[in-house]
Structures are given as C-alpha cells and as structure tokens.
Amino acid sequence: MRSVIIVGGGFAGLAAARTLRRHGRGVDVLLLDQKDTSDFLPLLPAVIGGRLPASATRVDLADWAMRRGCGFRRARVVSVDRAAGCVRTETESFPYDALILAAGSRTSFHGRTDLAGRAITLDDADDAARLAAAVRARLGA
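Predicted structure:
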C-alpha cells in the first residue's frame, strides 16, 4: 500500500485527503497538523456578526480523519527529508511515498511590530470571537 502524508488540516489538506480516500485505491493517508481542529474560514464573518458561535466553525481533525479512513497525528513538522522520503515531527518520523504540503498561512505584518500588537487578525475561530467581543465592547452592547 502506498503511503501519502498530508501536512496541514485546512481547506487544501482536507480536500486532498477526501479526494484520495474517494479515488485512491490502495493508498494509506496520514494527516499531520499542529492543531486538533480545523476552522471553516468562510463562516468566520457569521461568528463576528453573532449569528454563529465560534465552535460551529470547527472540525475535530481526529474525528474527521477517522470517519474517512485516514490517520491523524497532532504534531509539528520540523523537517522533510526528500531523499529518504520521510517527514519528521518533534517526536516521530513518518515515511512516505507521496507528500502533500498544505500547511496554510498566517497573517503577516511584514516586520511591522507596531501593527502586530494592535491588530486583531482573522486566521481562525478564536480570532473571530475576539473580534466580535471587541466590536461589542466598542458599541457598548
């Protein structure tokens, strides 16, 4: 059986895993992510507007992977050895036949530490909840 490792449990990583499990016969899929959950980003404005709780945007990655026949490990990838076909985390190594890097992105302030300390990012459900609270506080609601 061929082994595929997907680094990242966001949109791209979950879509790749879903497609591989649907159409990839004889493929063993392992999903690696630093977090236990994935946030459905298009719903974040509904969290800010108070129409949804932050928890409604979250998917438990271990549960998601199990229901689709994938493996899941919460781990931070520290290196990829392409020559050896191995992904290394802080505690384990995982061999692979194919690797998909879908680690996503975070807001960058491009070195502007003055902005980073004052801005509220919108990278996940926790950020949306903080922004909603800030808006309510500002409006006195």
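Summary: The mean pLDDT is 91.
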